[in-house]
């Protein structure tokens, strides 16, 4: 019998009101820092990132979708319907204490039913941001996953402690032992208990983060999902206002680019372009019309060289299986131009990658950064308007060789070194066995 006993329940200050209260203040940095202390006397909120799913159902607590485009929710007396606008599927979620729960079961191509709150679930961990479950306090009901390639320390600990089993994807019948199996790639064949969770289908950082509400409804933890999203959104918007206020006569020009198969491309991903704008920068994208440059082609190389002479900040999103080994010299090799003298972003040490937080070479960028976009925005703001007094969470400067990468021991400094951004994951502890 493997039960998680003695889950740590940490009384935690809850910060929503605080951020809300400070959001009208001209300088939310200091307002939040001051409010943090004030809040110590306000309310205390139970915060266990790995805790058991809440079991009390208060029908008055509902989630409303404000920003996300690709899911909708409807509430009945004893059931909820979540509609996934990407694939047109609806999930009928039936409260376990209702008569309907034992009588009704749907599994058609359009509608599936689940009895909630889920007693357990499994996750297809290929590109699945499990941090959403962490923020909801639902990790202890996670009983299966498809691989150990996850960036979440808490999930890895649970796996190592035997709480989570690895399920082989080639034996899909194994997933039927769980109340639900969450997947993020909807093109796969789907059994009756599969539910599609697709935050990556959204275009903006906040839209993606709001998918926490989608998972919340399966466990009746709407109020927590709402609180987390409200806190993240308020913090994001606050950071955004501060960043835009930093812009002086002109905005720093940012090239977010990737190298693949001999070709450099400037990103066209809406999400990344939006992050740059929200951090007070301007995308190089707005001023050029050619997006890809083949470094074996001399004309392309000249043009790329010229463009790079005009940018202030470069974000190199090139994929590599060994992020730790990707350095400034790797970047320069990939760029393939000999004369770097005009590269202001090098002189100014403004060359970044988003692989600072990793776990066995798995990037938390695709996990924790999806559920907490305010951390990304804070990092980017520092990249664009350096204070040198802020420890980034996701972004790693490969031009400034001060520190080596922290792999196993993830950075603990970011909360203390900055007073404006909140990392909700650091407010909580992994579930522990006793
Ligand atoms: C904007 O910046 C100015 C000076 O740099 C400061 O006085 C003002 O409070 C800032 N406003 C906000 C909203 O941060
Ligand atoms: C419904 O779920 C809750 C929380 O998991 C559980 O405590 C309760 O016993 C369940 N009720 C029924 C009728 O299954
Ligand atoms: C998951 O919950 C269901 C329903 O309560 C139960 O029948 C099943 O044994 C549980 N599975 C695991 C792996 O805990
Ligand atoms: C890049 O250019 C070289 C030389 O012209 C060519 O052989 C190669 O196929 C091109 N690469 C791509 C991805 O188009
Ligand atoms: C990465 O760096 C480590 C240590 O410097 C080295 O042992 C390893 O071979 C490198 N990997 C690759 C693929 O270059
Ligand atoms: C470096 O950045 C500073 C502001 O951070 C700016 O004033 C300066 O012009 C930049 N230098 C170059 C060479 O771009
Ligand atoms: C650096 O940050 C700390 C904490 O936010 C702050 O107290 C300190 O004044 C800052 N230092 C500078 C030089 O801005």
UniProtKB/TrEMBL annotation:
Q: Which SUPFAM superfamilies match?
A: Helical backbone' metal receptor
UniProt protein name: Uncharacterized protein
Q: Which organism is it from?
A: Dipteronia sinensis
């Amino acid at each position: 019998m493997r039960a998680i006993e003695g889950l740590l329940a940490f009384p935690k200050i809850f910060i929503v009101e605080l951020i809300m209260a400070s959001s009208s203040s001209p300088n939310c940095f200091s307002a939040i820092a001051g409010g943090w202390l004030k809040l110590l006397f306000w309310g205390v909120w139970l915060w266990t990132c790995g805790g058991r799913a809440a079991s009390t159902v208060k029908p008055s607590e509902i989630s409303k979708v404000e920003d996300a485009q690709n899911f909708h929710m409807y509430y009945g007396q004893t059931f909820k319907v979540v509609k996934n606008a990407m694939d047109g599927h609806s999930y009928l979620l039936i409260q376990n204490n209702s008569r309907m729960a034992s009588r009704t079961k749907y599994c058609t191509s359009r509608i599936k039913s689940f009895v909630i709150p889920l007693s357990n679930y499994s996750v297809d961990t290929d590109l699945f941001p499990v941090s959403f479950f962490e923020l909801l306090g639902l990790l202890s009901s996670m009983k299966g996953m498809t691989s150990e390639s996850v960036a979440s320390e808490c999930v890895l600990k649970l796996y190592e402690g035997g709480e989570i089993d690895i399920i082989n994807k080639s034996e899909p019948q194994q997933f039927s032992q769980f109340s639900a199996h969450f997947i993020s790639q909807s093109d796969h064949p789907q059994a009756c208990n599969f539910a599609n969770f697709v935050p990556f289908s959204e275009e903006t950082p906040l839209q993606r983060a709001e998918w926490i509400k989608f998972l919340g409804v399966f466990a009746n933890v709407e109020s927590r999902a709402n609180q987390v999203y409200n806190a993240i959104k308020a913090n994001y918007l606050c950071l955004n206002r501060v960043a835009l206020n930093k812009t002086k006569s002109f905005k720093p020009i940012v090239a977010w680019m990737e190298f693949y198969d001999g070709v450099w491309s400037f990103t066209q991903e809406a999400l990344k372009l939006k992050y740059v704008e929200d951090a007070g920068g301007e995308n190089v994208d707005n001023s050029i019309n050619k997006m890809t440059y083949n470094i074996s082609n001399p004309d392309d190389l000249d043009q790329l060289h010229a463009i790079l002479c005009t940018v202030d900040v470069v974000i190199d999103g090139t994929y590599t299986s060994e992020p730790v080994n990707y350095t400034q010299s790797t970047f320069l090799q990939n760029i393939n131009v000999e004369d770097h003298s005009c590269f202001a972003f090098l002189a100014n040490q403004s060359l970044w990658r988003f692989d600072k937080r990793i776990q066995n070479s798995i990037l938390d960028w695709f996990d924790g950064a999806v559920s907490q976009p305010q951390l990304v925005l804070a990092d980017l703001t520092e990249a664009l308007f350096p204070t040198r007094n802020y420890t980034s969470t996701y972004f790693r400067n490969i031009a400034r060789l001060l520190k080596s990468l922290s792999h196993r021991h993830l950075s603990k400094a970011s909360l203390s070194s900055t007073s404006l951004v909140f990392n909700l994951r650091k407010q909580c502890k992994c579930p522990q066995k006793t």
